[in-house]
Amino acid sequence: LATTTQPQIWINNSGVIGAGPADTQPDTEIESVIRVTLLGVINGTRAAAGVMRAHGGHILNVGSLASWTPVPGEAVYAATKAGVLSYTVSVAAELRDTGIVFGVLCPDGIWSPMLHQRLDDPAAAFSFTGRRLLQPGEVADAAMRLLDSGRIVASVPPNRGLQTRFVGITPSVFLAAAGALERLGRRNQHRFRDQQTRGR
């Protein structure tokens, strides 16, 4: 007998950074970032909602602190993550009476291959402005807490979420601080690279 999959939880977690100068970034790279990081979430959300309408469920989309704030050197990535946040909240409002619960998790940089590959890339410095990189396990734990909380959006860690949200609504402050933030990110890149070299 044919069976139909009826997931209770669906998580869309996709992203590629594609760091580089906005005016010279290759078209193919821009298209890849948009296709994976934004369209991947949109298509996954539509697929999940299509099968959850009958019985409800949870759809969790993974955004980023970049959902809240500009990220020089990763302009397209930041735009797609802002899109993930806006899209998810928009769809949640559309489907508010279907029993489908939506969430957007916005984590800081995660100690993962995506950032391992950027430790020597000055264009990705803004991904390293946090004091530390998150571990995948703590992001997974935060995702489960968000699913249980009934809230629609959570940042990890919360204090960095507040900082980035403030920066996002005060662009003049951000522009004034951009140089200092870039220098901080590059120092942290060197520190994280040294830690990796020492096996920490």
Description:
The protein has 200 residues and is of the alpha/beta class. Helix content is 52%, strand content 11%. It has six helices and four strands. The protein has helices at residues 27-52, 75-94, 113-116, 136-149, 158-169, 171-197, and strands at residues 9-12, 57-62, 100-107, 153-156. It has a four-stranded parallel beta sheet with strand order 1-2-3-4, with helices on both faces. Strand 2, helix 2 (75-94) and strand 3 form a beta-alpha-beta unit. Helix 1 packs parallel to helix 2 (75-94). The model has no long low-confidence stretch (mean pLDDT 93).
- The coarse silhouette is globular
| Main sheet attributes: strand count, strand direction, barrel closure | 4 strands, parallel
- For the residues shown, what is the average pLDDT? 93
Q: What is the helical fraction, as a range of percent?
A: 40-55%
Backbone CA Rg: 18 Å
List keywords for this structure.
200 residues
How are the elements arranged and paired?
Layout lengths: L8 E4 L14 H26 L4 E6 L12 H20 L5 E8 L5 H4 L19 H14 L3 E4 L1 H12 L1 H27 L3
Helix pairs in contact: 1-2
Give the structure's gist in a few sentences.
This protein is an alpha/beta fold and 200 residues long.
